[in-house]
Amino acid sequence: EAGVVQSPRYKIIEKKQPVAFWCNPISGHNTLYWYRQNLGQGPELLIRYENEEAVDDSQLPKDRFSAERLKGVDSTLKIQPAELGDSAVYLCASSRDNYGYTFGSGTRLTVV
Amino acid sequence: GQSLEQPSEVTAVEGAIVQINCTYQTSGFYGLSWYQQHDGGAPTFLSYNALDGLEETGRFSSFLSRSDSYGYLLLQELQMKDSASYFCAAHQGYSTLTFGKGTMLLVSP
Questions:
Q1: In the prediction, which pLDDT does B1 show?
Q2: Which of A34, A29, A37 is nearest to A46 (CA)?
Q3: What does the buried/exposed string (b/e) look like for A21-37 if buried means 16 or more CB atoms within 10 Å of the residue's CB?
Q4: Chain B residues within 8 A of A50 when measuring between CB atoms
Q5: Using the beta-carbon criterion (under 8 Å), do A45 and B97 form an inter-chain contact?
Q6: How many Å lie between the alpha carbon of B100 and the closest alpha carbon of chain A?
């Protein structure tokens, strides 16, 4: 089966510009997660979806971050406007059974 | 809050055995998972312990003691390709996963 697909792989933007990341989870995986990973740190949860419903977005900085998962499949994560501190790797993951996550390769964001 | 503690770095030689420890303090603890991440790559699921005891998967084993809030990952017959970061991650409730900061394993010839 195809893995979790994310795009773009890399993104460099100037601060205050908007940016969007896209994720296509594994077919049949109802749960989708967005994580952020800073250099030398573990991934930190931003938002979790069960089908199209965001069931845990407590760690999502809602003043500048937004996410959607239309039709319970693909998802996009948006930052507007981006700040220097947003530079990180943004990882998407999906799971069927909630204990074995499959991560995508991530989008490495650099804000300059 | 929740926190997981693991060593920042461990070194070993090829063919050796290494143990990476993890202690946790989380509410609603459901189980402990381990992930491997090579530099620039995606985290890859290794193992999951919901109950106390040892789970073995090939060269890798994982152990959990709920009473001690402690677990470890055991890697045997180390190979150069095992050089990577290893994360313990606590399951809170049914689905939320909180990761530790990771342990960088360096395997030398």
A1: 58
A2: A34
A3: bebbbbeebbbbbbbbb
A4: 95
A5: yes
A6: 6
Q: How far, in Å, CA of A53 to CA of A51, rounded? A: 6
Which of B104, B70, B62 lies closest to A100, judged by CA?
Answer: B62
Residue A86: the pLDDT is 97
Average pLDDT of span A7-20: 97
Q: How many helices (DSSP H) and strands (DSSP E) are in chain A?
A: 0, 11
pLDDT at A64 over 80: yes
CB within 8 Å of A24: residues ≥ 6 apart: A4, A5, A6, A73, A74
CB contacts < 8 A (A, B): 55
pLDDT < 70 positions in chain B: 1, 94-95
The residue type of A104 is G
